[in-house]
Amino acid sequence: MGSRTVPGDQSPEFTQALSDLRGARLRPEVRLTEVPAPQRIAPYAVALTAEVVGAADDEDELASGRFVLLHDPSIPDPWDGAWRAVTFARAELEPELANDPMLGAVGWSWLTDALASHHLGYTAEAGTVTRVVSESFAGLSDRPASVEMEVRASWTPVAGNVGAHLVAWSDLLCTIAGLPPLPEGVIALPGPRR
């Protein structure tokens, strides 16, 4: 896993964070790909995209997202710390959920529950939950309506292994994909990653 850093400047903390991310044990349905990290937001950054796919014989994408970890030792005021996780998760939902007034609150709780289930400390959390309803007309009227949920969130990890924050975010991604949670104490066996 590579990253973007200031040329000639190595951060032991960021190097450890990359190691933590590499060591994160995700469910086998989650496929990670490293992508170019954003420029000019922080001196150190790494970005990953993820997709949740069905069983081995069904490779349909159930959800997709992006996880960006930023590190700025100067501790920017809005972050309230030297680290910032910036995330995005999207999945198509059942059409009957389009009018559920609690959908946004439920989507946000899926994130906070995932962080809590891994006993992770965080601060300065912020985000949005968006539902997108698409209806087709005229020449496309034979297509059924579709509903997508998007969860955009950022938070500042407080101490510990930042790889665990990637695992918690991947749990959110699996939840919006409709996968059942793993039972308490069960660890998913690593699957092939792209």
Automatic annotation (TrEMBL):
Superkingdom of origin: Bacteria
Family matches, as Pfam families: DUF3000 (PF11452)
Alphabetical list of InterPro entries matching this protein: DUF3000
Name this protein carries in UniProt: DUF3000 domain-containing protein
Native organism: Pedococcus bigeumensis
